[in-house]
Amino acid sequence: MTQNRTDLSRRTVLIAAPITAVALGAAACGSDDSSGSDGGSTGQTSTGQMLTETSKVPVGGGIVVGDVVVTQAKEGEFAAFSTKCPHQGCAVAPKGDKLDCPCHGSEFNLDGSLVRGPATEPLTPVAVQVRGVDVVRG
Ligand code: FES
Question: Which cofactors does it use (predicted)?
């Protein structure tokens, strides 16, 4: 379940910036298999845990997996954020090419940056990596 940092450092690419599946697949882990997770996992997530398959994240949109929203602003550019709105903590969700908070109307870009308040801060990034065809937390 836990991997040491040096093991992860080569493969872990994303903290706040989007990553490209093509670059990761070619440079680091193109043929890794994933094990132990199903594609529809929800709820708790931890480092290395599969969040979703890359093919399930719409280009120009995102999907919610538990408390994380995984986005793909451009083909192969994946990012993830906590769904917790920085305003008062409601759960944001994809709405078109934005992430929308239903409580008070804050809106965020697919890179987590703030479009419209009342929130005053961006979404909190979640580190993810593409491992083969999977987006995993890490
Ligand atoms: Fe999201 Fe208020 S909790 S806008």
Answer: [2Fe-2S] cluster
pTM as predicted: 0.70
Q: Among the atoms of ligand 1, which is closest to the Cα of residue 119?
A: 4
Residues of the domain holding 13: 1-32
Same domain, yes or no: 63 and 119: yes
- Ligand 1 neighbours (beta carbon < 6 A): 85, 87-90, 101, 103-106, 118-119
Contacts of 73 (CB under 8 A, 6+ apart): 18, 60, 79, 109, 110, 111
Residue range 29-41, pLDDT digits in tens:
333 333 333 334 3
Question: Which pLDDT tens digit goes with each residue over 66-78?
Answer: 999 999 999 999 9
